[in-house]
Amino acid sequence: MPNSNKSQLRSPRLKRPTRSVHIVGTGSYVPDRILSNADLEKMVDTTDDWITTRTGIKERRIAPDYMCTSDMAVEAARRAMEQANVREDEIDLIICATITPDMPFPATACIVQHKLGAKRAAAFDMEAACSGFIFGVEIGQQFITSGTYNTVLVIGAEKLSTIIDWQDRQTCVLFGDGAGAAILRSRGEEHGILTTCMGADGSQADILLMPAGGAKYPASKESVSAGMHHLKMSGKEVFKNAVVAMQTAAEQALRNCNLTIQDIKCVIPHQANLRIIEAISDRLGAPMEKVYINLHRYGNVSAASVAIALDEAAREGRFQRGDLILLVVFGSGLTWASCVIQW
Ligand code: ACO
What is the enclosing helix (H) or strand (E) of 268? Predict the structure, then answer.
């Protein structure tokens, strides 16, 4: 083999440029139907007072039977595309973060690709539970930074009402349905996504899970009658881990950028429990006025939570172009992630 060919084989990859990545549009969608704490009082042995004081949640949205996770994802995606002025044929990649896909396979992202008519886009699902949206943003960013793709659609979408045990008062009061989306692109200017941190601890996988329906416990009459297709949670354990992991992840992201919490205009945490958010705000030294909260209206929407909150905070003008924002999330896995963005 001639020498020139050998050297080509030794370094087959082209050196690619690195680019800063921006969120150029956001969108969200929640179903119309509201399930209030008063409604839940009629379903299980609970009270509005217990739910409000222990969680901060007042109501959540529930999707109708005919509406799939992909339908909500498409609605959120369309709103993000409209805001970003991005057409279907400009999308290179769709990442859908969800623990409630339309079905185990194919990926919900592929169904979204078809419904959007985004024929050029590659598509896959990403599962990191409530941390999934930030994991998706990090993955999308890597594709753009490397020069592989120009336009990435990241979605967090959930129909959690389908995996909730509506007779279990310890979990059914916490969750809701909805979707949020973001379009990632390089604006050809500095700043954008400044850092992203991700982490996981599989040794505690059993404190928040849906046991059956996978290869370990395939669906069977027994698995259904044992309620193994419902979300199970050790609330106190999740609570403790969430506070520590979110504080650590947020501090890591700030350190990576050489910033302090005083530099941050708006903190957008995962919306699981007001007491978790207050504990993190206290530990980080962030006044609650800086912290965006919408969990009283939607409950915990897992991967969609922070995506919906980001969209609503942006549309409400909680931060402007050039402001620094901090996103921090925690979920089953265990997983956690944080992200600093100069908007
Ligand atoms: N209504 C009335 N009473 C209730 C309810 C309810 N809905 N749920 C539980 N209780 C009772 C319990 O039975 C218990 O009664 P007991 O003392 O007689 O045994 C009492 O209230 C206290 O229960 P705890 O579980 O100790 O309550 P706690 O203060 O820990 O709050 C909660 C429970 C809200 C679930 C809390 O632990 C929590 O928010 N944990 C984190 C949840 C979370 O963040 N999950 C999402 C992670 S993200 C993801 O990946 C999906």
Answer: strand 266-269
